[in-house]
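hiii, so i know i said id send this last week but things got crazy w the move. better late than never?? heres the sequnce for the chain we talked about at the cafe, plus the structure i predicted for it. fair warning i was half asleep when i ran it
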Amino acid sequence: LEKDAKHMRSATQFFGNSLAMATKEIGNLKVQLAESRNAAMYDSLTGLFNRYAFDTELSAYLQADTKGLCLILCDIDHFKKFNDTWGHLLGDQVLKAVGRKINESMRDESTAYRFGGEEFVMLLPKTNIRIARHFAEAIRKKLEKLSLKDKRSGQVINSITASFGVVESKPNETITDFI
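okay and structure toks below
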């Protein structure tokens, strides 16, 4: 009996340790999964949601009641020329600064995404076209005020402009038609 009791105690301790290790490993896997989900949804340069997140969110909106869903598309003007003149590192700084200004402007349920390259998109649910146009104009003015300094040359860049398109969804509209 004593020998069996020792054996059971040893087995219980072994299984307890195994369970503790498995619990710790599950915790680590949960953290890794959350980090992977985060990486899959965010643009690493600007910190905004990425195109995949936009496509997912827009699809969900368009399948639901889309009354009052507005989209604002923003494109940094002459970005290729800017990149060619100032370099890609400073171009990345421009993208970060524009992304930050756009993100700071988001309110309520509105969300900003990096659509691709130098394009950004904002979804504004429960908004009409008139309000969305004013919102886009306010962001455009904020971007015009952006000023960046090239640390290598000391030159100040304050000629960042962007073009905007604003649209309100229609019933049964496809993603492609909406964009």
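btw Residues 72 and 109 are 14 Å apart (CA to CA). thought thatd interest u
miss u guys!!
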